[in-house]
Amino acid sequence: MPYLKNALAIEHVGSTAIPGLGGKGIIDIAVAVKQTDMEAAIPLLQSLGYEFRPTFSTPTRAYFVIFLPDPEETKRRYHLHLTYPESPDWHNLIAFRDHLLNNPQAVQDYAALKQQAALEANHDGEKYRKIKEPMFKAIIRKQENDCR
């Protein structure tokens, strides 16, 4: 992402970052900038076609969606999570991904939950996220305990 010259880190997170997890083909990218650069980055990303979604953002993470051309599909959906390295959002996104990358059983458990959530939510994105949230939080707590 050359237009984010001040990015401190760019990480592929989400289901597509985990081999064998499956998913909807949405690419989630976490971008860390200095906390002081976050506010200025929002209109910059909007000017490049990223749709800012305040309702899915948090006080420490700005959430964006964009559809870009893709060789495998007509368009692919991307989620961009703009945050800063010291934020809980950055920590949680990376910790969750890293836990799944290092725990095949957790990948299987999460894949099963995602399938169940998709059936129960019936295309309701908010319900889908809420069904998955307890496992996400449990994995983050485990990662925090393992780091102590």
From TrEMBL:
- One of its Pfam families is GrpB
Entry's transmembrane regions: none
What organism is listed for this UniProt entry? Candidatus Protochlamydia naegleriophila
The protein here is known as GrpB family protein
Classification via InterPro entries: GrpB/CoaE (IPR007344), NT_sf (IPR043519)
Give the domain of life.
Bacteria
